[in-house]
Amino acid sequence: MARRALVLLSLITGLASLIIVHVYGEKFPVTNNFSGSPGSHFHQRMRKMQEFKASLIRRDLATTTAAATAPSPSIDSPSPSPSAAPLPPQAASGPRVYRVTSYGADPTGKSDSTEAILRALSDAVNGPREGVLMQGIANLGGAEIYLEGGNYLISKSLRLPTAGVGNLMIHGGTLTASDNFPTDNYLIDLSSSSSSSSYNYEYITLKDLMLDSNYRGGAIQVINSLRTSIDNCYIVHFTTNGILVKGGHETYIRNSFLGQHITAGADPDERSFSGTAINLMGNDNAVTDVVIFSAAVGIMVSAPANTFSGVHCYNKATGFGGTGIYLKLPGLTQTRIVNCYMDYTGIVAEDPVQLHISSSFFLGSAHIVLKSINGVAKGVNIVDNMFSGNDKGVAIVQLDQSKGAFKQIEQVVVDRNNAQGMNTRATVARASMQSNGTSWTVDFNSILLFPNLIKHVQYSLSATGTSFPNHAIRNVTGNRVVIESDVAVPASIFVTVDQGGTS
Ligand SMILES: *[C@@H]1O[C@H](CO)[C@@H](O)[C@H](O)[C@H]1NC(C)=O
Ligand SMILES: *[C@@H]1O[C@H](CO)[C@@H](O)[C@H](O)[C@H]1NC(C)=O
Ligand SMILES: *[C@@H]1O[C@H](CO)[C@@H](O)[C@H](O)[C@H]1NC(C)=O
């Protein structure tokens, strides 16, 4: 009885699912199997759903472009009737790829392509939309401005006509500033004078581009935008900033090459290099796997919570007045620099508060300078780096106290770095000495970073004679530790000192 009921039930269920498949099957073949494992069937369903969605988008695009051009659009007809006006070229070449030559841009770089590319940008921005990203940011669905491998002459900033759009890519070619390009402009300018959203743009991708500023201004400006991606770009001949990021957050600059001049190091004109390759005036950005081969400052940072990894700086050498990474955010640094290669050019940090530098390689006497502004250094880790120099007595970490001494020093750890041909500096030091007498003085001045600062001492005395002397620390001043015993003994002294202290 129970078995018969089960058979009946499964029959009914099967029939019901058949009906469902029939009703929705034409547009969206639902398999209606929710009992299986979430593995292959789930992915298959997701794929089908995405295909279905894509087909709707294509239809939507066809509707929009056809409505704009043809007098009596027919959604279902596969090709427009011969009497209808031709579709715009970008639509013919596929959905949402705006080919700039279709707008009259000159890929040979001979005539000015500014207006043509601006028209392509305008069409992209006014193209089909798919809801919103962040509030007030319309989703352009992945529209592409395709430079088609050409080199285009540009005479003023390429700016999007309106703010409040996202999910757009500009890629695949070269932009070169013309000889009359305004020197305060940027080749690609993601800024806006008016924005309805709290952000100008979201998820704009600039990819596979060579940007030649022709010694007139900068290459990319990203103002108050969210989730901007700058990927595989070769940025040269800037005089202001190669890339400027201001406000907003999450601009990711990766796998790119920046240089004011195209050189491969040891350039005779290096002394006169100027400009800043990357200027970060906003937080939460990342620079990863980037080479900066010429500029006065490689990366200038004036907002916290940025991170740098795999950055190779060999811009203007420190010896000529250049800086690899300049952290100009005294009192709130919050910067991580890991796995970087500072090549004859170093790092400067003003009043560092929360700064981490590790696993990096400093070549050619490149070093780190902690510059006192208000005398604060807190939460600093400079650990596990390699320093290599030319035996000129350059210290791996230095203090610039020209504006006043560091006086608030907490949780500063400079330790476990190795140095060749340079003088090591640390906040933690160990030393031992051996003599026969009643007094032992261990001088840590050649190694300790901060003058006259020992927050913690630990020592042991190993007496080799027959007596058991009383001994004690008698003085810890001027980075020297004095230990005395009541009777003369031959003894070895082991001392560990710490300037950083614990929390
Ligand atoms: C449902 O999925 C399970 C597990 O993947 C499979 O064993 C079963 O045959 C499927 N049933 C139908 C009706 O497709
Ligand atoms: C250590 O010094 C004391 C007094 O100066 C002396 O008597 C003793 O022989 C010395 N011991 C050694 C091992 O040099
Ligand atoms: C500790 O040594 C310093 C410098 O050597 C000296 O000026 C100071 O008076 C000493 N302090 C004591 C308590 O002996």
In a nutshell, what does this entry contain?
It comes from Melia azedarach (Chinaberry tree). This is Polygalacturonase QRT3-like. The chain has helices spanning 2-25, 40-69, 89-92, 114-125, and strands at 97-99, 138-146, 151-154, 158-159, 165-177, 186-190, 201-212, 218-223, 226-236, 241-259, 276-283, 286-294, 297-301, 306-313, 323-327, 335-338, 341-343, 347-350, 353-358, 361-363, 368-371, 376-383, 386-388, 397-400, 408-415, 418-420, 428-443, 456-463, 471-477, 480-498.
Structure description:
This protein is mainly beta. Helices cover 14% and strands 44% of the residues. It is built from 4 helices and 30 strands. The protein has a 26-stranded parallel sheet that branches. Strands 27, 28, 29 and 30 form a 4-stranded antiparallel sheet that branches. It starts with a helix and ends in a 5-residue tail after the last strand. The site of one 2-acetamido-2-deoxy-beta-D-glucopyranose has 3 residues, from strand 30. This is Polygalacturonase QRT3-like.
Strand content: 35-45%
Shape: elongated
Proportion in helices: 10-25%
Please tell me how large the radius of gyration is: 32 Å
Structural class: mainly beta
Number of strands: 30
Q: Please give the alpha-carbon distance between the first and last residues.
A: 76 Å
Please give the count of helices: 4
Q: Compounds present?
A: 2-acetamido-2-deoxy-beta-D-glucopyranose
In quaternary terms, these chains amount to single chain
Mean pLDDT value: 87
Low-confidence stretches: 14-39, 62-93
Major β-sheet profile: 26 strands, parallel
